[in-house]
Specification:
By secondary structure, the protein is an all-alpha fold. The chain is built from 16 helices and no strands. Helix 1 packs antiparallel against helix 2.
Amino acid sequence: MAIINTIMVSTSTRFITVALGRGDTEEVNKQFNVNLIIHIVIALITLLFALPLGELYIQEFINYAGDISNAIMVYRISIISSVISFIGVPYNGLLMAKEKFIVFCSRDIFTAIAKLIVAILLVYCFDSKLLIYALTLGIATAYPTLAFTIYCNKHYPEITNLKWVKDKKRYKEVFTFSAWTAFGAVATIGRQQGAALIINAFFNTIMNTALGIANTVNHFITMFSQNISKPIAPQITKSYAAGNMERCASLMVMTSKYGFLLMLFISAAFLVEPEWILRIWLGKVPEYTVTFLVLITIDSLIMSMNMGIAEVINAHGNIKLFQISINTFRLASIIVAYLVLKAGYPPYSLFIVYIIFNVIIFFVRQWVLNRTVKFNNWILIKGSYIPSLIAFASLLPWIL
């Protein structure tokens, strides 16, 4: 459900942002309504199929020592809350396009505080802990739809005014874009989860623990650098839609350079003294944790240099070449990594394979960018890549 939600949020944001960039309020309203109708249909289909099939699966195949009705109720709560969140996706996309990040921050703060309060209450007060916990997560998932809907209807009534859009071409464009986005999401998740599955296939659970720790640290490192691209991404799309390629290029260079430098700044300590930091946190550090963390961080640093390129390609709209070329290599890296470990190489070889493929993907992105939007790649090389590589090179003596 989360994967579908992520795909559709990026799709809605793209189409609404492009319309906003062209300054056509009527077009924005049409794009909003097209996306809203699509998401209502997705929500209804999910409700019709997921509820009966999921309940059947739970009753027939789940091994649960307690009352099975509790498990079914938890499932129902999860599905219903997810369905409600689907309907809120276009409102989410509109807020992203309008760059109202304070609304998202308020939601996240409220949700975090609510979860903390309920977690404390669960320890001391409630008997039906499972259902209370499921309800809390369900409300946290569904409530943003209500909050975003009220906010958007109040502040952007000319955009959220409900209308039936008959133009089939618009629906086809949205479905095509989301389908290629889905292919990218599957490849990305496959690459991430594939590492754990492959490690688990050839080694023991302690190795999976080491990988889990490394991924946890890397998640928080990358979160900081990725957040720098969120407020810039709508500006890139709007600039491209308005035909202002000079500003679009400048924003892309800014996203790439500062995203990389911010991540390098945060990850420097983990690259220079990873074992010391992990020992403070964990006490006893599982074998290979340090090696995994360093290699995964380097892999993420390479990816961060390409921030902004995807936004430009998405703004252009023709993402087929981008998704096929990039994600074919991502999927291939999983296969090659499996074959390398099957050949008897040590577990960290998996991430060396990932890094090699990521370097290839880095150059493929430059080719696709140039071919799709006729972009002068020297602007990126001079403005972002050279300064970024100089900064990383200055850190090498301490890493090595």
